[in-house]
What we know:
The chain is built from ten helices and seven strands. It is α/β, with parallel strands linked by helices. It is globular and about 50 Å long.
Amino acid sequence: MLEGKTAIVTGASRGIGRAIALELAKKGAYVVVNYNGSGEAADEVVKAIETAGGQAEAYQCNVADGKACEKLINDVIGRRGKIDILVNNAGITRDNLLMRMSEEDFDVVLGTNLKGAFHTMHFVSRYMLKQRSGRIINMASVVGVAGNAGQANYAASKAGVIGMTKSAAKELASRGITVNAVAPGFIETDMTGKLSDKVRDQASAQIPMGAFGKPEDVAKAVGFLASEDAGYITGQVIHVDGGMVM
Ligand code: NAP
């Protein structure tokens, strides 16, 4: 259980991040529900946590902005005294074939998915090092392992997240801080809601379990990695994908 722990979940206003915020709060953590543009949705997540007897707050921060991430981490430390769990979940897609992909589409996806996780880890690590404890969980994707046509930018960002996770795990292990990644396959959220029926059918055909996963499937894995029970697991990439990539 996570009583007395403070957690930050980036991109927690919707989808997988929302489910992670609810799961960590259910386990007893105080959850900072980060969002970028969806303030009302983030407030609704906080309300849902409070209705269930948990504690949370909404916090606007664009993770692609380093200064804003520094303020997020310092504000939470200022009010809570510590950050025990950081979940870098915020992510976006700007899909296109390589020859049509603009430099801006490349930069904006890398800026949010990869650099966003760098910013929060960079600023939180100094506090976790002093505490000599912490859990960092980064949202990767099976696409970062296997690649995907039309997602060169997204795949590069998620492969980067995996490399950064393993490097940080090696740097921080001796101070009791674990750093792991979770790699979802196809999960039912707004992100996959954009896919055409044809793409959905093709995707389902590649999943041994035959169906898309739910945000809660990913949240359960994150809840485990954030717990005391996962204390000897670091630098790993846990696939939550119905067997899609193995
Ligand atoms: P989603 O439904 O589109 O939600 C994305 C979340 O990220 C929203 O809460 C959004 O907040 C937030 N966000 C986006 N840009 C942000 C920024 N610059 N700063 C702070 N927050 C930001 O996506 P999802 O499907 O839940 O995906 C969550 C994570 O899982 C992503 O990293 C994604 O790459 C990964 N993933 C998803 C799947 C899948 O099948 N769905 C598969 C593999 C990996 P606002 O709405 O407030 O902007």
